[in-house]
Amino acid sequence: MNAVGIDVSKGKSTVAVLRPLGEVVASPFDVAHTGSDLKALANFIKKLPGETKVVMEATGNYYEPIARYLHEQNIFVSVVNPVLISDFGGNTLRKPKTDKKDALKIASYTLSYWVDLKKYVPQEDLRKSLKLLNRQYQQASKLKTMMNNNLISLLDLTFPEINKLFTSPSRESDGHEKWVDFVLAFPHCDMISKLTIKFFSRKYKKWCNSNSYHFTEAACKKIYEYSKECISSVSSKESTAFAVIQAARMLNSATENCHVIQLEMNRVAAQLPEYSTVMSMYGVGKAMGPQLMAEIGDPRSFHSRKAITAYFGYDSENNDSGQKVSISNSMTKKGASALRRTLFIIMQVLLKNKPIDNPVYDFLIKKQSEGKHYYSYMNVAANKFLRIYYAKVKEVLTAAET
User: Fold this and answer.
1) What own/partner pairs with CB < 8 Å and gap ≥ 24 does 147-151 have?
2) Which residues make Cβ contacts (< 8 Å) with residue 378, sequence separation at least 6?
3) How far apart are CA 93 and CA 95, in angstroms?
4) Burial profile 105-143: b = 16 or more Cβ within 10 angstroms, e = fewer
5) Residue 325 above 70 pLDDT?
């Protein structure tokens, strides 16, 4: 038994090899993430006598190239959650933290859990691409939210709450929102209030036609009357308008970026066999569907429904001691926060639309009627949705194999 522990970091990894009873086969040594060094490491591992298993932590994206390379060299590789390694302790009160100590600790973990180690299997290229796109989408969404808040903050000075007058959905061609494009043309309320209703109506109608937005006399009148009553904190100077216009342009740029990534995610997700099944689930649309598929990946990698809910932090841990017996425990949340956020949004859609005879919605309402806290019934409903997703998608993928 050769336990190879690899502590992965950016640019290099530290490797240690142990055998039972604490025998050190190879003291910790560094390996650069280059083709020649990884080839030398693979040859070294292959020459070890007896059965060999390699274990490393799932640290960001750093472990992927090494794990994939060793896997392709027909070496047993297992990638474990860093929490498991962190919780695995030696017989000491001190917890030194160095790459060499970590490599030895991972090797010790390998020996202790030898029979339970799960073999690493690289993700399909499509699933890997989808997950990478989703990570980029999450970053782009954060930037979009920041730009959105910035524009609203500026409009509080020039055109307070004008965004609330527009309820149109985002434009399908580029994701633009009507209110953002509107303040590009009218960044200050004085630019409308100083006009006559007739002149503004003509101007607004021309703007709607040129930007592919729907025009109604009622909406035009509502905007004009609001502008007449609106009180701004700053004058409509050119510099003030310039600041609002630049903020609107930055928001539109962030919106377009999100829109393009979302389209590509749908294109990639549509090539996976479970796409139509996922998209048919209530509350899942073109935005949420690919995100679910990206974060969950291949459900067949989980041995049961309990395993998938535990992996994403929807399970709870007992907290009993002595005469204390816990009745209700909170979620562990030891998983992908991005997935929990996506599922939470789907639960909000269910709560808003109230679909008839939907098992997840019925369960949600049942927990709500029992007096559960908002986050409590939303999370347990999301847990149920995830279990249904697991069963449906696993069935589709299994059928596609045969």
Assistant:
1) 147/247, 147/250, 147/251, 147/254, 148/251, 150/247, 150/250, 150/251, 151/180, 151/183, 151/244, 151/247, 151/248, 151/250, 151/251
2) 344, 347, 348, 351, 364
3) 7
4) bbbbbbbebeeebeebeeeeeebebbbebbeebbebbeb
5) no
Structure token pair of residue 132: 């990478």
**Which residues does 54 contact at the CB level (< 8 Å), separation at least 6?**
4, 6, 45, 70, 75, 76, 77, 78, 110
pLDDT tens digits, one per residue of 28-71? 889 888 889 999 999 998 988 989 998 888 877 788 888 888 89
Residue 22 has a pLDDT of 79
Rounded Cα–Cα distance for residues 53 and 78 (Å): 8
Q: Which two tokens stand for residue 398?
A: 């299994």
How many degrees, rounded to 5, is the angle at CA 299 between CA 296 and CA 305?
100
Q: Kindly report the three-state secondary structure assignment for every residue of the chain.
A: CEEEEEEECCCEEEEEEEEHHHEEEEEEEEEECCHHHHHHHHHHHHCCCCCEEEEEECCCCCHHHHHHHHHHCCCCEEEECHHHHHHCCCCCCCCCCCHHHHHHHHHHHHHHCHHHCCCCCCCCHHHHHHHHHHHHHHHHHHHHHHHHHHHHHHHHHHCCCHHHHCCCCCCCCCCCCHHHHHHHHCCCCHHHHCCCHHHHHHHHHHHHHHCCCCCCHHHHHHHHHHHHHCCCCCCCCHHHHHHHHHHHHHHHHHHHHHHHHHHHHHHHHCCCCCHHHHHCCCCCCCCHHHHHHHHHCCHHHCCCHHHHHHHCCCCECCCCECCECCCCCCECCCCCHHHHHHHHHHHHHHHHHCCCCCHHHHHHHHHHHCCCCHHHHHHHHHHHHHHHHHHHHHHHHHHHHC
Q: In what order do the strands lie in the sheet with 12-19?
A: 23-32, 12-19, 2-8, 52-57, 77-80
Stretch among 67-81, 277-291, 310-324 having the lowest mean pLDDT: 310-324
Please answer whether residues 278 and 147 qualify as being in contact, where contact means their C-beta atoms are separated by less than 8 angstroms: no
CB within 8 A of 131, min separation 6: which ones?
Answer: 123, 294, 295, 297
